[in-house]
Specification:
This protein is an alpha+beta fold. It has one domain: Roll (Nuclear Transport Factor 2, Chain: A). It contains 4 helices and 6 strands. It has a 6-stranded mixed sheet. β4 (83-94) and β5 form a beta hairpin. The longest helix has 16 residues, at 3-18. The chain is globular, with a radius of gyration of 15 Å.
Length: 140
């Protein structure tokens, strides 16, 4: 598929995500998709490596339980060959602490036959970690 076809697939998947249509996101993934997100799993339950539709669906369920997404806007797409990079502005609120999270996200997608075979997310987890901590006592 062309670079622009892959970008169109991602734009549609992001639109599905913003509408809460996770099935719409899953349909653009290969059955054995690899899904990688950074962070400390003990605080950020979305962090870690997942494989396949079931585990990716669990990622979105966990994200919904963990954060209220307030703003999610892809700002730019960079496509070359089987890769598409999306630069995203994100703002959310951690449900457990009520604290805000803001981040510039970098999503790297690898395509195979018109579907996402691999997803990897990058962002400054240290800058957002404060929102996951219940309190910041002395020495924390």
């Amino acid at each position: 598929m062309s670079d622009q076809s892959n970008v169109r697939i991602l734009k549609d998947a992001y639109a599905s995500f913003k509408q809460g249509d996770i099935e719409g996101v899953l349909k653009v993934l290969t059955d054995d998709v690899e899904w990688i997100t950074p962070g400390l799993p003990e605080l950020m339950q979305t962090a870690g490596n997942r494989r396949g539709h079931k585990e990716v669906a669990e990622f979105f369920t966990t994200l919904n339980k963990q954060e209220d997404v307030e703003f999610f806007e892809p700002a730019e797409y960079i496509a070359q060959g089987d890769k598409v990079i999306a630069l995203i502005k994100y703002r959310g609120r951690v449900r457990q602490t009520g604290k805000p999270v803001e981040a510039d996200l970098v999503h790297v997608f690898t395509f195979s036959n018109g579907k996402v075979r691999r997803f990897q997310e990058f962002y400054d987890t240290a800058a957002t970690l404060h929102a996951y901590k219940a309190s910041a006592g002395r020495g924390a």
